[in-house]
Amino acid sequence: MKVEVKVDIKKLINEKEFKLLKELLKEQEPARIVEMIEELPHDEKIVVFRFLPKDTAAEVFSQLEKDDQMELLSLFKEDKLKEIIENMEPDDRADLLEELPANVVKRLLAHLSNEERQNTLILLNYPEYSAGRIMNPNFLDLKENMTVKEALQHIRDEGNKKETIYTLFVIDNTRKLMGTVELKDLIFSEEDEFINDIMNENPIFSTVYDDEEEVARIMQDYDLLAIPVTDSEKRLVGIITIDDIVDVLEESATEDIQKMAAVGVTETSYFHTSIWELIKSRVIWLGALLLFESIAVFVVEGFSDVLQKITVLAAFMPTINAIGGNTGSQMSAIVIRSMAVGDIEDDDFKKVLARELFSSVILGIILGIIMFLRSIVNTREPLIMLSLSLSIIIVVIISNLLGAILPFFAKKIHLDPALISGPFISTLMDILSMFFYFSISALLLKDML
Predict the structure, then answer these.
(1) Hey, is 206 helix, strand or coil?
(2) Is the separation of the CB atoms in 143 and 114 below 8 Å?
(3) Are 184 and 216 in a shared domain?
(4) Is residue 71 within 8 Å of residue 42, measured between CB atoms?
């Protein structure tokens, strides 16, 4: 279906059937239009924007990839550029402007009214990844001394121009946040009731300097569609809605996955990232891990006499390495995920360590028994079988504990815990696994050397 619609648009443009094109676009949601035009050449995207209503054009433009936005900005005529910039939501506009050169920002800001320009500059002045940077100052507020009738009339008059009307924010005369009220509560209340009688007097809120991921977690925990954002004096300055939080969660998950896979973070989608950018994002980490992994070569070389005399040990090197890396990666993923959703806090270190020490011993024993039975295929020498089993037990315990400890250590030194998972912990365990494997083997099998 998606391909057919794209072909239809291209055909309509080529045949100059602009009336039909306008009708087709009028029936579509902004997100659907983005899907329809994302693979069109930029000159054909420009044609599509000519036939979009102002609000729709601004919303479609906001949802495009950054590279597409940059290209279109250079192609739009001044009147279309002004129309789109004016009709973008302030938070989307600030997100766009922070990516642009100063001379382009200056040009775009010139198209805005003084109020909109001021709103945009305020957002840009907040730290990146803070609640202030992603909040929208375009919200509907109510006074606590309003009646329900007055509030509903205020919503009818102003609600169509605001970000959301499902959650309303109650302020006093100094703009301090006093509470929140849901639209459904207004609808089912008596008209002569006062807002301060039906509002939630203890609303969940964030401040402008809160981290955006922490705000996302709060909105998830409390099932909020919107959260008020206040300044240091609890004055209401903006709101963050669920659509912004979905973007934050997607960016955060993408960044964590890239870091856990030892890939440099890229902000564009796969097909909008050049091959050279993809190579650059991977080669630095892979090169560093290659050099780090070479330490394991020196460890094995140090036990070359053991390998030469008991060659069967070489057959189990991949198994020992794999179990160490897999156990550590599993554990680090569990801890990092639990940290991300707030299940594990910084002061839970001792609890986590105690739990994982116990579980790693049990895991090690189970896997050690499996290894003992598995090794019968390659050898019937009891001491070799014992050394393999003990190696598995020690490696599992160490890798499990490292997988639990390293995320805490990363947070302590202000690094993203995702950086130390995946390939990093696998490489580290390759080195340690080989060291403990050959050390245990050399100790138990010294009579065979």
Answers:
(1) strand
(2) no
(3) yes
(4) yes
